[in-house]
Design a protein that fits this description.
- Homodimer.
- Keywords: Aminoacyl-tRNA synthetase, ATP-binding, Cytoplasm, Ligase, Metal-binding, Nucleotide-binding, Protein biosynthesis, RNA-binding, tRNA-binding, Zinc.
- It comes from Aquisphaera giovannonii.
- It is built from 24 helices and 32 strands.
- It has 738 residues and is of the alpha+beta class.
- A hairpin with a 2-residue loop joins strand 3 and strand 4.
- The protein is globular.
- It starts with a strand and ends in a 6-residue tail after the last helix.
Length: 738
């Protein structure tokens, strides 16, 4: 018998092999009809999976229905199978790779004989998928021993699946498959009971994808789609996708002249144009002012460092594949001059002799003996070699230092801490820097500002005693909360990112240190009464952290601010301070970056605000719009007053009608437009027009300036309107009373 504990706490006894479907039916017909899958002891399983329990503990089980978020993932994974089945029906000879779910849908990587799929094929694929959904055939699970499974997929002509079994799955004794009609796929599941559960689906895009993500493997085609239980949900999602397309920071960034990427500079390397640089500068000033209030000290560090630094920290070679190749630098100036001269062909034999002697490099070296041989004869003289041989000789026998483009700021800040003796009286020491770092992202992963190869972090590292950890961690949490709320990103959830004990990437002094750090973070979150969820395996390699998962105005989630607790790097670098007991102690490090990457944060802000930044952050805050040249002098005076008050303001003196000028200003997302005509010039007034609220009527210039000043000082954050509504407002601007 097996005992099953239900969500209401009740425990019921069933025969071994009972299926979740039968348990649901026993509870009620409505639940059985709505059931999609089940969760048994934390694992999602099919409704037809037999339940057994070899222990005396009850199996904790709950039935998943369309109301549960986990059920949507099951539905989408099943729809990926339905899509693959439809593609195979339409295009014989398809080889399947992987078909997982994503945050908003699913994809399947496929290889099609003799052709490339395109979006023009989507209609036919969707029609075939609709037939499969209508037939509502069941998903049937079966298992085979690994050798039989390999032969089975080989007989199906699924070479990629064979390779996957040989490379990664051969260690498992049994492999599972799912059959739906004529379609069979190697898959661990789970799946919905039958295809008829799919309420609505849509294919979204297609892209290239390397087999197993490796650039030295064959290129496959990745077909993306999404699915929902209800068509209304699909329609809402597609509307959101369209809105996101309109808000794409790459499109808006180009239209508003915020940033650019030049092929001559390089992929993933951002050039901040004046307007974008203005916003970035404002963000930096805002953060620096707040840090000074909180006791942080500014530092600057170089853009490169010796590879030894990152080997000590563990960033190299752990993340070698994600870093730019090392820069090799000769340690001897004479050797460098000689090598450069040989490459350029500008150094004669006499100069070569002089430089070779200055570098301390012998003219000839004994050849290395083979194993078991006596030392062999000397090689030929340097001056008997060709220039190419000389270059190779020097490269083999000169001393080099290796440098990396800085992948992280923390090892540099650690060296600032270690530069002088520290006492407990010096702690906490809070070092802050807007430090630029470099990561070599794959070309296919680059995306505007949100995935780049060079980015600036609002980085800070706090060095403190063990007794100070909780207070310092709490203060960094409060800082991150303040920053996000000040920028209209106060809708977030918090993840406590822990290590995975089975994953060797997580370094530590020992397991107890990791557990201690995780417990301390949890205690701070509990004390602050902040709800959080746990992400196992999401920690940094040197310590656990808190991640702020921010939801933007479209409901999309982004990981932004992070606060990390680190006992590992102080140990690796042997950092010390003298305690009250006059003995040496190891400090604790806290890493924190509320913005994270300025580039990525800016890209998210562009999309969140659809380029319409709040007044205090806008690159151009006010535009003066004269109705005609007759009031040009007064319009100039208004501009002068605005500039004198410290606002970023311009004057539109083009010979256009006022409605056109207003429309241009709306399209350029200018927060405030001050319209001036003869009446306003007479009364030393302006007609105040707000980008969102529209025409607010005439008011004295001094009152308008005071209003703008107040909004800037208070960092007023207007409600973020959908872009479609903003576009409608821009159209209405044509009807201004002037």
């Amino acid at each position: 018998m097996v005992q099953i504990k239900l969500p209401d706490g009740s425990i019921k006894e069933f025969p071994d092999g009972i299926r979740p479907r039968d348990v649901a039916a026993g509870i009620g017909k409505r639940l059985a009809d709505a059931a999609v899958a089940a969760v048994a002891d934390g694992t999602i399983v099919d409704l037809d999976r037999p339940l057994e329990n070899g222990t005396t503990d009850a199996v904790e089980m709950r039935i998943l229905t369309p109301r549960d978020r986990e059920a949507l993932d099951v539905l989408r994974h099943s729809t990926a199978h339905i899509m693959a089945r439809a593609i195979m029906r339409l295009f014989p000879g398809v080889r399947l790779a992987f078909g997982p779910t994503t945050a908003n849908g699913f994809y399947y990587d496929v290889e099609v004989d003799g052709r490339s799929l395109s979006e023009s094929d989507f209609a036919a694929i969707e029609d075939e998928m609709a037939k499969i959904v209508k037939d509502a055939e069941p998903f049937e699970r079966f298992s085979l021993p690994v050798e039989d499974a390999r032969q089975f997929v080989a007989d199906l002509g699924q070479d990629l699946k064979v390779e996957h079994i040989d490379g990664e799955l051969h260690k498992y004794g049994i492999l599972s498959f799912y059959r739906q009609g004529e379609f069979v796929d190697l898959c661990r599941g789970p799946h919905i009971p039958n295809a008829g559960k799919v309420g609505a689906f849509k294919l979204l895009s297609i892209a290239g994808a390397y087999w197993k993500g490796r650039t030295d493997r064959k290129m496959l085609q990745r077909v993306y789609g999404t699915a929902f239980f209800d068509k209304k949900e699909l329609d809402a999602y597609l509307a959101q996708v369209e809105e996101a397309r309109r808000r794409d920071h790459r499109k808006i960034g180009k239209e508003l002249g915020l940033f650019t990427i030049s092929p001559l500079v390089g992929k993933g390397l951002i050039l901040w144009m004046p307007k974008g640089a203005t916003v970035r500068g404002l963000l930096e000033t805002f953060m620096k002012a707040e840090l000074l209030k909180r006791g942080y000290q500014p530092v600057y560090t170089p853009h490169i460092g010796k590879i030894d630094l990152y080997q000590c920290s563990g960033h190299y070679p752990k993340y070698r594949d994600a870093q730019f190749p090392p820069l090799k630098m000769l340690t001897d100036d004479a050797a460098k001059e000689l090598l450069d001269g040989l490459h350029a062909g500008t150094v004669d034999e006499a100069a070569q002799r002089t430089l070779l002697a200055r570098a301390g490099i012998p003219e000839r070296l004994p050849e290395k003996p083979l194993d078991g041989e006596s030392p062999r004869a000397y090689s030929k003289s340097f001056f008997e070699m060709t220039d190419g041989e000389k270059i190779a000789y020097l490269e083999a026998n000169c001393d080099y230092e290796e440098y990396l483009l800085k992948p992280m700021n923390c090892p540099h800040h650690i060296q600032i801490y270690a530069a002088e003796p520290r006492s407990y009286r010096d702690l906490p020491l809070r070092l802050a820097e807007f430090g630029t770092v470099y990561r070599y992202e794959q070309s296919g992963e680059l995306s505007g500002l949100t995935r780049v190869r060079g980015f600036t972090q609002d980085d800070a590292h706090l060095f403190c005693t063990h007794d100070q950890v909780k207070d310092e961690f709490k203060s960094t949490m409060e800082l991150t909360q303040f920053v996000l709320s000040s920028l209209g990103l106060g809708d977030y959830k918090i993840r406590l990112s822990k290590h995975d004990p089975s994953d060797p990437k997580f370094q530590g002094v020992d397991g107890d240190i990791w557990r201690r750090a995780e417990d301390e973070i949890a205690a701070v979150l509990d004390e602050m009464k902040l709800p959080y969820f746990v992400g196992t395996g999401e920690a940094a390699f040197y310590g656990p952290k808190v991640d702020f998962i921010v939801r933007d105005c479209l409901g999309r989630e982004w990981q932004l601010g992070t606060v990390q607790l680190d006992y590992v790097l102080p140990e690796r670098f042997k950092l010390e301070y003298i305690g009250q007991d006059n003995h040496l102690h190891r400090p604790v490090m806290i890493h924190r970056a509320p913005f994270g990457s300025l580039e990525r944060f800016f890209g998210i802000l562009i999309e969140h605000f659809a380029g319409a930044f709040p007044l205090w952050l806008a690159p151009e805050q006010v535009r003066v719009l004269p109705i005609s040249d007759k009031v040009a002098d007064y319009a100039g005076d208004v501009l002068h007053r605005l500039l004198a008050a410290g606002f970023r303001a311009t004057l539109d003196h083009r010979p256009e009608k006022i409605n056109a000028k207003i429309r241009y200003a709306q399209l350029e997302k200018i927060p405030v437009m001050l319209v001036v005509g003869a009446k306003e010039a007479e009364q030393e007034a302006v007609a105040y027009r707000d980008r969102t609220a529209g025409d607010l009527g005439a008011m004295p210039l001094a009152q308008a300036i005071a209003r703008i000043q107040r909004e800037v000082e208070e960092r007023t954050m207007p409600q973020v309107a959908p872009l479609a509504a903003a576009a409608e407002a821009e159209e209405k601007a044509e009807g201004h009373e002037y």
